[in-house]
User: Fold these one by one.
Assistant:
Number 1:
Amino acid sequence: MLPSADFESSKRHAARPSLPMAAIANGADRGDCVDQWFRPIPLSPLHSTRCHMIRTRFAPSPTGYLHIGGVRTALFNWILARQTGGQFILRIDDTDAGRNVEAALQPILEGFRWLGMDWDEGPEVGGPHGPYFQSQRSEMYADAISRLLESGHAYRDFAKPDELQTLREAARESGQAFVYDRRWMANDEADVEKYQAEGREGVVRLKMPRDGQCVINDLIRGEVVVEWASEQDHVIARADGSPLYHLASVVDDHAFGITHVVRAAEHLPNTPRQVFIAQSLGYELPTYAHLPYVAEPGGTAKLSKRKLDKYLKNRDFANLMTRGKAIAERCALTTDDDTFNPVLVDFYREIGFLPDALLNYLMLLGWSLDGEQEKFTREEMIKLFTLDRVNKAPASFDPAKLTAFQADAFNALPQDVKVGMVKPFAVAAGWVESGNDESEQKLADVIAGAGDRLKMAGDIIDFDYCFVDDYEINPKAYQKRIVKPGNAIELLGKLREHLSGADEFSADAVEKSVKGFCEDQSIGLGEIIHALRVATTGAAGGFGMFETLAVIGKERVLQRIEKTIANAS
RNA sequence: GGUCCCUUCGUCUAGUGGUCUAGGACACUGCCCUUUCACGGCGGCAACACGGGUUCGAACCCCGUAGGGAUCACCA
């Protein structure tokens, strides 16, 4: 990357617009609706993100949950700000009043905190451009709306929704793009009074150009050209004067000094109208970058929180969900059915994922450094990410790969950090008593023994038999190792005798003892060890047998063998 | 249906005209290691959507076709 050259070229572009000649020409002979306001301002060329102070934003609406796709968008925004010493702003899009914003906002902020994505301005931290809730910025929007009205870029319209709907359907049936003929547009105060006398309510619409084209220079997509005529006269204010999303968004982006609007590609079709609003208001345009959306597992459609049933048909997705449910159930997690879903970040936090692993995986959805390196520390993410290496095509969410990333990251953790993460789960399951040294030591032993069999903190549930006696017995393993070999019970009985005489019950001591037993009996270790495992853990597999026995403890081991023998006969 | 976007292994991707008999990762899979289950090591399977150009030469450039997707609200 050549920062200085990039900087030069972006300055050159700013001084001498080269791209949108068509738009300028068309603007000149447009004649009717608007005067010379419309002159697209060229955007910075690629790479320019490295050399300017960047202000980005993520604008969630308070829905109560954080979508994985949204997190990726936020991540890119956050990185862009961090790598340039710029600011990352959180703005709350709550123009659609009526819900409990505060309650629905908390889970989102918590999600950000958990992920370690801090915001420089926004809820709770404030900032110089506040307030950061759209519901509290009405005056600014009202001002913008009246300016738009005055300059003729917007008009009052008295169409009824169903009247417009009829028109739209007719256009659609004839295969034409719907173009509103503005038949209920108020040209003057007299019109307004007349319509109001008819009992009509007036909204404010954008008076979109009917010819020429809008050129969007997108950092990821390149040049996107849209005919103005294909744009609607979008409503920007309701009858009660309250603003709609596009208006509010553009006004705020400008007021906040947002330099880069980085958002999901589904916003691309919205961009022309936002460009229109911004330019009508005389704003300098931000640089746009439209990210490919995150697609569903094994598919190409946009990942949606609402299609759980469909995703559950995907093996890997179903596995993750099953794992999550098992952890939630065993650890008595109070999960909300509505948010306990692998499409939402809450899920991962609840079952003991590492935020860095999630972020690392998400960053690779649509972005790559060189096709070789895939693992990045947070510092590397900030250092190495560039928008010009973001792909254009949607990337499908792969739960198996995410889990693999999580497993690797989790196993790279130092033992004490692992223990710290796992402990809450073990405590919640009722297996470990917090503050009790013996109990905590046992947990540490189990975690050390389990090693990389623990992929996430919640995986501790697989080792319930280390802590309690009411574990499940795997029927297949029982059949194979206890029932089928005719001598298993007999051997187990003898082994129990042998073990009962042991003074020490450390892993090493037990190993010696069991191996000595095998020698005495002239059998291979393999002939007893499987039966021993099933008898003492009920499981077909697990970590080292002798570590397992040591952790369970002499008394319990003997009891369990005894019980197995009793049940078998 | 209109508008816009996209198209390399099952998935994420590398690739910017010759180094591509297309590289890496996840998944799947074979072997080795091993008392089990994992880890690990060494292998394997597997892709340039299609058709035309341009060129000595195309995954890469151009044009079409097909397919997929997003979006078309007084939601955000």
Number 2:
Amino acid sequence: MLDIKFIIENPETVKEGLAKKGYTKEQIDIDGLITLHKDVNKLKTSTQTLAEEKNKLSNSIKSASNEDRPAIIAKSKEIGEELKKEQELLAEEQKKYDNIMWRMPNLPCPESPVGPDESGNVVIRRVGEPTKFDFTPKDHVELIELNDWSELERITKVSGARTYAIKNELSRLELAMHLMVLDKLTEHGFTTITVPSLSKQKPLYGMGYLPFSQDEVYYMPADDLYLSGTAELVLNSLRADEILSENDLPVLYAGFSPCFRREAGAAGKDTRGLVRVHQFLKTEQFVICKNDIAESEKWHKTLLAISEEVLQDLELPYQVLEICTGDMGAPKYRQYDLEAWTPSQNCYRETHSCSNITEWQARRTNLRYRDNKDGKVKFVHTLNNTGIATPRILVPFIENHQQSDYTVRIPTKLQPYMNGKKFIGKNAQNKEA
RNA sequence: GGAGAGAUGGCAGAGUGGUCGAAUGCGGUUGACUCGAAAUCAAUUGUACUCUUCACGGGGUACCCAGGGUUCGAAUCCCUGUCUCUCCGCCA
């Protein structure tokens, strides 16, 4: 959500930002919005004037004489009728106005590359070289089958397409990665927090999932609850409506939760294996900081650095992508993605997504803080980034670390979380000895 | 799932139809006292919107969980929802 005062004072900047994000004037009419806002304000003023008159009359009734009283009550009733009509009109216009405001995307960062879609994204650096093999590498599904690590086919009979069941050492690996990342985030000052995957509707608006990505989210009408696609959803609303002290900032959460996504727009994409599933586990980085673009940009870089560290600890070759204006979602001001090298697909595939939302979400959740310098109440900035998401990351992990005997090498940093094992797989026992 | 109780300012807690944005206490802020601190004393202490002012400021409207309703007038009465607590049942 944007500040209407900013829109009124900088209509051209706003129009330009919306155009960069690919919104047409037909989709969001800024001039119309400004006019509507003026109309709403006029109605507010007239409504308030009527309410004032009515309040004065009501207050005078108690002390009025018995003769005067009926006349005052009659007059008050009359104004009451008028007021009711005015209020209804106001509510109508206000609804139109709110509707536009809730559908207004965030403006992109001036430094973000401008482009229509993912083709406009810019690789800003590559770390590590694509893995070279002196044998013919297998893809992750083959390796999983050779090592008895999954029930990929059977589970779909039980739970449907795009679900996974992994077993033996691989299921431990999945949890080990989360523990490793949670430890890392704790070192960086984050509060670990496990959060529900269930959410009411309001937080979905707060985060921006609604009204923008309705098709992506599971809804359970029997209980009027939604299944969360990310811990960001819950963390973003956890402190909603609060006024924090600046001294409490930044708030750093490392949120762990099962995540659910319908993948409605992804029919036919990534149907093989563990890349795109309906339910997965994610450790999420979430930051609440003060309303200062330099400060939140600093945190944005820090979050990115932490997830790069994760990929480095996992010894995966990766690239950092700066996402262009047309490809970033509505809530975002600036976005980086991390993509890990995936040998079977001969390309980099997304593992992390790191976003600065500025105050756009805070306006929706009404999350504010009191500034120490000027004592004013301001909206916070929020940021989020993947800590680690499984099973997707297992794909590049298994494929990059595979050996000719189908075992998979465990990088040093991860070994403590895998009972010290250096390799996993059916043939690993021979090697350890 | 069954039975009951409740939701008031940062916190605790009064207030059951008429200047109630709301007593009191705690906390916070500022000042006095002090070398300093504590204690004490004094003052102050929500948010949003709107009108007005160059500005300091001033006026007004709304908000006592949320949404409806009754009434000239609602924190207070009625309905619905949400949440919390206690007991029973079930359960990891």
Number 3:
Amino acid sequence: MSKKLYLVDGYALIYRSYFAFIRKPLFNPQGRNSSAVFGFFRTLLSIMQQYSPESLAVVFDSMTPTFRHVKYPAYKATREKAPEDLHAQVPVIEEILKAMKFPQLRQDGVEADDIIATYASRAASEGWPCVIITGDKDLMQLVGKSVSAMIPDKSGGYAEVGPEEVSEKFGVAPEQILDYLSLVGDQSDNVPGVKGIGPKGAVDLIRRFGSLEGIYENLDQLSPGQQEKLQQERENAFLSRELITLKTDVQELPPPEELVLGDYDKEQVIRLFLREGASSLAEQLGTAKEVRAEKKEDSYSGENAEYISLLAADELDRLKKALLEAKLFALDVETDSLDPMKARPVGVSIALEAGQAWYIPLICEGTETLEEEGVRRMIAEILKNPDCTWVGQNLKYDYKVLKRWGIEDIQAKLFDTMVAAWLLDSTANTFGMDALAERLLQYRTIHFDDVVPKGKEFKDVPLKEATAYAAEDADITFRLYEYLKPRLEEEDLARTFRDLEMPLTRVLAEMEYAGIGLDGKSLERYGKELAKALDGIQKEIWDLCGREFNINSTKQLQEILFEERKLNPVKKTKTGYSTDTSVLEQLAEEDPVPELILKHRGLAKLKSTYVDTLPKEINPHTGRIHTSFQQTGTATGRLASKNPNLQNIPVRDEAGRAIRSAFIPRKGCRFISADYAQIELAVFAHLSGDETLSRAFEKGTDIHRQTAALIFGVDEAEVSPDQRRVAKTINFGVIYGMSPFRLSNELRISRSDAAHFIEAYFAQYPKVREFIDATVSETEKSGYVRTLMGHRRFVPGITSRNRTEKSGAERIAVNTPVQGSAADIVKTAMIKLDMALMEGGYRTKLLLQVHDELILEAPEDEVVRVSELVVHTMQTAVELSVPLKVSIEDGDSWGAVH
DNA sequence: ACGCTATCGTAC
DNA sequence: GACGTACGATAGCGTT
């Protein structure tokens, strides 16, 4: 034996790994604890990477009692039984070790320590190197000239230690560890030791007399107290030594030469890691690229999948018949652009069952493809059929591409795998197909960049590769469907999905497709005005400060304000002093510069975020702006808007209003804007059932005024504007779980006054507090909250012992049903409104949704009738215990309707 | 040149 | 530390 042998103390590493994450355990996608699996292999892989061992074994304890139990029945008796979720991970670790072809050792009647000791003693006598990976101090007795140990260090890694380090750490040499531990004992193994002798005393005794025998031979030299302890516990001392003495003669172990590492199926191990949710380990094992390259080889017509390029007209016809018969299929469009409002189809892939898919190229380098028109007709026919279900990943994208291609009549039912995955767990952060395949199917897809070289397009990809990629997309989408469908049912989300989210997907696609008109010219003019104004303010600031600097840089601003102008910092950020609005407002009281900075910032924000950006978003084909609504963008169920974000266009001040005014209706049309009055507070009243809060909605009184009257103890008619402002802040604050601290800051009042207001609020609305308490305690039990329509959000922090995290989780638990249910209501209204408009034969179109507001574009002669329809539909979208009120306006720009 | 984080600010 | 949900701009830093 010449190679260095690495011996891993299996259970020591498993325990350590499990408890390392005990405050924040890791879970695999099946929801089982995977801390031990992750920690175990993270350590193992890091050792592999650092030392590249050729020879290694993982050693486990036997499942049967050992000679130590026979000798001393109390052995390890005090040890707490391992938690069930730790125990369950052992077979998984064994499975992965097996897949990695790592030698595993265990033997009945002996412990891992004994096996390790047997090899170590051979290493010592034969002079070959050996390393023990463990956290167990018993094993330190084995360290010597050719045997070292790796123990956890402070940084979380493992450090190699030799005899000197052991002596340093314990104060005694490795060969004295045994006698040392016989005196000290071992709590975890219930080894008694000598009562009254601790680490300090033991080190002292061992140093003076060398060994246990040495001590007992020289008892007369000790203090009377120590003499007595040692006399009395003599038996325990020697029994202890016997227990912790390791066997070095375990028989029938494989010779060390056989404990070698070899090649193994990396792909298989990566899959196991992915199954356990350890994607970082999977990544570490083989770079994603390598694995994907391997994947490419066999996925074209591998064991698991058959992918066919469709090039013949009669095959297309046969496929159509099969589709109409199957009634459910995955269909995915390849295009030449990520922007569906610019993209042209390059090919279509279709899957009818898992493992089989077709790619129908329309444009493909070096291939004679089918006539585009024939394919278009075929797709149009199957998607027109209301009995069919179209399964897709991010359906809105394909829907819009196909609509632009001329497929306008899509009546097939929709099943979007991306939305389904989001509905099942909105706390995940990615819902892309590649990520879903890995997370849910443990399948690594071919990535776009692997098939399409930079600078090229999909149509440049040769047929074979194009088919492998495109058909896989359809195949995986189908498999995702098979995975997701039953889970939606199990989790009681199938109805929300079918009746709310999927009908909404179609409505959103239509809204995005319609777009909204923007007067780019007027914004450009405004931009020039702003540029001038900014220049002037900048100059003023520079003059006052005596030098030029970048006003947009918070870092430079800190220097100017807090160093050069010696202003007092108000609050800190992670990296320095804050310069946000509230700080600058305070500083403005003693210095003229902050006021100017505020002015500059406001205008700069307006210009860079809206005025300069929006005209660039005008689509060259349609001349309109087409935002994208993210149906999977939020954890509460709200929509999000991007490219551009039309949900945060300024509204409050005059400068911002100018931007809204640049949004204009088509010729002959007007905008209609309808918004729910205080929908979140109405939902809050409904969910809490608080009579007083509900009364405001029933009577249609101003909720903020009512709250002010109640907490200040005055008549509603006597409420001052200031009192109403305070009440408004509290009304919203309660929904968000605002603290007295925040409220006092917001209102510039003392913290005790703020606390007093909140108390008064709860006293007047008693069921609000009950609702909050009940919601928190239910969330603690179940781990999640649900909205009115059943949308679910996991709240992992709800069991945290960290106070900040715990209260953060409580705020989420309370806010999500409120915000999420409001979102549900608006979504429902959108679907019903879309249907009503269609049934009424109106040409009016929904264009935008801004959380509690809908914006429509109506031909002038429809405005009156549609306005009525909108109000009615929105107010009756769902039935709550309180009435919902909607206010409506029409105008010739967005600025005019708010 | 690109990607990431921090900070800031807009909306509801 | 301290109010929920988003998107996006700029600065500044690190990596390619």
